[in-house]
Write a structure and sequence with these properties.
There is one protein chain. The protein has 466 residues and is mainly α. It has one domain. It has 19 helices and 3 strands. Strand 1 and strand 2 form a beta hairpin.
Length: 466
């Protein structure tokens, strides 16, 4: 029954459900935002340590131009398990089905990672496909070998995090990120203290230790949730089948795959543009900083998925997204247009003055991306709630197609520093993606609004005959 029963002089009426409060949205959002933000700190932290180790430009370029893009593209089919687990782990059979899918897929992708990192296939990928400068090819291979546990660990913890969010334990997701960063920093400090180890080795050992630690933590804290909440949840009808799950999930897989392809595409393009080595060295540093601003918006996607099911939630969630867009855009604007950017890149990140200047200019080109991340989460949440995940894939295809064309023009033109052209291309393509998501989410938003309007109307009054 919707609303509360009120009794007055023998008359029973059903009051409208209360509107979803901003306090509830914020309480759900901030642990996830903190988790994503702390996760966003990882790449700048790694870059800052590597920049102070032997051969910083080579090792930064190897990590940002080869290891990180390839590791992400290999794991892309399981990266959306967070959204799928949040949306679909509604009962024990659904949980078990998604868990089996996670284990099989993660094992297969780990095999692919091993195939690329430990066989001659690596040289084809790094040299022929990415076009990486020769000086970073071997360091990149060492790093990719060390990153072997990455994919399985990511799959396991994202699946568990979705369950935690689904059953209102999002704070534990934030604690897991602290565990991950602690492991990162321990390895980074030890490596820096030794002083003779190459940065690419220290960086990849740190990142691997971090994701393994977070995966173990998520497995421990999710157990009581599974026992006490998942297994006691009422069975959904009709039950979730593998066919239905794949119909929901495959567009998300394509989305993450296409979305993450921009990283190796960007590396390949920057390798073929002017100032290739400095651009590749700055690329992971500026990517890490912009991701920190985007991360709080990315976290909003799971909030929308989790809370849009509640009565009278649409208006509140939409307004919260507008506020969050304004806040994140203002913050990155302040960072980009004040001396804070040079402080970040030169002092904290440890970049040489020339590279720090490049990064400061590049950050200006990426200012709009923070707001776009929030809006995309809002629109994608609406679409996920409506079950039309194909629309998200369409938007990513548009994003990828746009950035491929723009990067091709940059390589063909060959007159603009690769970092600047790459960041400008990313921003333009992200704008087009956001625009398409807005267009495709409009029917889902109308349905949600109509539902809320019905819930806002009191039920017919029934007179008592007593």
């Amino acid at each position: 029954m919707i609303g509360e029963l009120t009794y007055n002089l023998g008359v029973i009426s059903t009051a409208p459900s209360p509107q979803l409060s901003y306090r509830r949205i914020f309480a759900t959002w901030w642990p996830l935002a903190a988790s994503w933000l702390l996760m966003g700190v990882e790449l700048p932290a790694v870059s800052a340590f590597v920049a102070r180790m032997p051969n910083p430009a080579i090792n930064l370029a190897a990590y940002g131009g080869i290891v990180f893009p390839l590791a992400l593209i290999i794991e892309s089919p399981i990266i959306m398990l967070l959204a799928a687990s949040t949306a679909l782990s509604k009962d024990e059979p659904s949980y078990n089905l998604i868990r089996r899918f996670m284990l099989i897929t993660a094992a297969a992708l780990t095999g692919l990672h091993i195939l690329i990192a430990f066989t001659p296939l690596y040289y084809f990928v790094a040299e022929s496909l990415l076009g990486a400068p020769e000086v970073i090819v071997e360091p990149g291979r060492i790093g990719l070998m060390i990153m072997t546990p990455w994919t399985f660990s990511i799959a396991y913890r994202r699946f568990n995090q979705g369950v935690l969010i689904r059953y209102n334990h999002s704070k534990k997701v934030g604690v897991g990120t602290i565990v991950r960063l602690t492991a990162d920093l321990i390895v980074l400090v030890i490596g820096y203290s030794i002083g003779s180890i190459q940065g690419i080795v220290v960086a990849t050992v740190a990142v691997s230790a971090g994701v393994i630690s977070e995966a173990i933590y998520s497995g421990i804290v999710v157990r009581p949730v599974v026992q006490q909440q998942v297994k006691t949840s009422p069975l959904i009808k009709p039950p979730l089948t593998l066919k239905n799950f794949l119909r929901f999930y495959i567009p998300l897989v394509l989305t993450s795959l296409l979305n993450l392809m921009v990283l190796p595409l960007g590396s390949a393009a920057l390798s073929r543009m002017p100032a290739a080595l400095p651009s590749l060295a700055v690329w992971p540093v500026i990517s890490g900083l912009t991701f920190m601003f985007r991360s709080v918006g990315v976290a909003y996607n799971e909030v929308v998925v989790a809370l849009l099911e509640e009565p009278r939630s649409t208006r509140s969630l939409r307004r919260f997204s507008v506020i969050l867009t304004g806040v994140t855009t203002s913050l990155i604007l302040i960072m980009a247009l004040t001396p804070l950017s040079l402080l970040w890149f030169n002092i904290l990140s440890g970049l040489e003055p020339q590279l720090a200047d490049m990064a400061s200019i590049g950050l200006i080109l990426a200012i709009p991306t923070a707001g776009f991340a929030v809006l995309q989460s809002w629109y994608q949440g609406l679409i996920l709630h409506g079950g039309r995940t194909r629309s998200i894939t369409e938007a990513v295809v548009l994003f990828l197609g746009s950035i491929v064309i723009l990067l091709w023009i940059g390589v063909a033109y060959g007159e603009v520093t690769g970092l600047y052209w790459g960041l400008a291309s990313f921003t333009i393509a992200m704008f087009l993606q956001t625009l398409w998501l807005w267009f495709r989410s409009r029917p889902d938003e109308r349905v949600a609004q109509e539902r809320d309007e019905l819930l806002n109307v009191p039920a017919p009054v029934a007179s008592s005959t007593d």
